[in-house]
Write a structure and sequence with these properties.
215 residues, mainly alpha, Nitrile Hydratase, Chain A, two-stranded parallel sheet, two-stranded parallel ribbon, 4 strands, globular, nitrile hydratase activity, lyase, metal-binding, CN_Hdrase_a/SCN_Hdrase_g_sf
Amino acid sequence: MPHDPHHDHPHDHDHEHGASDLSPIELRVRALESLLVEKGYADPAALDALIETYETRIGPRNGARVVARAWSDTAFLAALRRDASAAIHGMGFSGRQGEHMVAVENTPEEHNMVVCTLCSCYPWPVLGLPPTWYKSPAYRSRAVIDPRGVLADFGVTLPEATRIRVWDSTAETRYLVIPMRPPGTEGWSEERLADLVSRDSMIGTALARRPEEVA
């Protein structure tokens, strides 16, 4: 459900994303990774490449295909509005982290942004692994209190007349933002359209890329 930006949220507003922001399990993972690297069982570069692949290519590419189809197929967009979970599962993207999905569409009048104020609930089947900043207390608290300021931090400036709506993910419901389709893309194939869709644009902290950015 949409979050009330005026509601009091007792979260840490510190902008530092250091070790203090890590959960106990994340600290244990870091310690285990350090041990494996020290023993020669793991290559740091290979681990970084694997994480990068899941964060920015495999999962987000699935979501980009969903958005591209919504842009180009009015029947699919209607199905997405009706039951996003079923529409997304019908494309073969399913999993425990995306069982109940809701699609929210950006328009010139309204911009949507997703956060999880309690932890880091995130739709893995369509977005891959959550980025570090999504899990940070700074983002989780500021997104609901000052969404326009957070967007500015990401380099997104919206017209003052554009309403910003923040959606709070839970273990039961997760959200996928459908960014606005950029002009000048009429007649593009779904594959080409998907190149315009980034992970951040499906969280709502970015806009879809312009055609000239992927030329």
